[in-house]
Design brief:
eight-stranded antiparallel sheet, 5 helices, 8 strands, binds flavin mononucleotide
Length: 183
């Protein structure tokens, strides 16, 4: 049976902090639009309070989450236990993008490790926390972070990454503008 909470209690926060992987789901309002589900890794997630979470978002070939948040704000995070006690935890919230150069960016960035290719920070206000059993989630061992992104971003260099973001990260698959494309 799923259990519902209004905020992330301390056990939830502890569980979230331990996960090396989380998933982020967003969707456009248009029912024919593409729903996005992204896996996120590295040490990029921070619980800011019992009702607020943030993650450092890295450069990619698309920018779906940010586009959907700019349009409608809805976001769901999923965390699951791949070892030890089974558990799935979902956070339902309202998210937004914080871009480099803003006052909030300067406040939040020091909370994260320095990762080349950092693109933006996603902040979400959480209004519903839901846990469920996770009995059918496989048992897996964490072998380590994948260094591929860091190496890729380092070898590309910030100038090339910035040019790539201006080209590929300004609209979603469905043509919604992202904050990177609104400046
Ligand atoms: C070097 C590189 C690394 C990527 N890593 C991820 C990743 O870890 N997770 C992911 O969902 N997409 C990754 N992508 C794919 C795109 O960024 C994808 O368009 C993105 O997931 C869109 O959703 P987002 O807005 O959540 O980033 C990567 C792309 C590139 C070029």
């Amino acid at each position: 049976m799923a259990k519902v909470f209004e905020e992330m209690e301390s056990a939830h926060q502890e569980f979230i902090r331990k996960q090396p992987l989380f998933f982020v789901a967003t969707a456009p309002l248009d029912a024919a639009g593409h729903v996005n589900l992204s896996p996120k890794g590295y040490d990029t997630l921070r619980v800011l309070s019992s009702k607020r979470i943030a993650y450092l978002d890295l450069t990619g070939s698309g920018n779906e989450t940010s586009a959907h948040l700019a349009e409608n704000g809805r976001i769901t995070f999923t965390f699951c236990s791949f070892s030890g006690t089974a558990q799935i935890l979902r956070l339902y919230g309202e998210g937004r993008t914080v871009l480099p150069g803003s006052e909030e960016w300067a406040e939040l960035l020091p909370l994260f490790p320095t990762i080349p290719g950092t693109r933006q920070i996603i902040v979400a206000e959480i209004h519903r926390v839901q846990t469920s059993c996770g009995y059918a989630v496989p048992l897996m061992e964490f072998k380590g972070e994948r260094e591929t992104f860091r190496k890729w971003a380092e070898s590309a260099g910030e100038e090339k990454l910035e040019a790539g973001r201006k080209e590929k990260n300004v609209v979603s698959l469905d043509g919604l503008r992202t904050p990177l494309g609104m400046g």
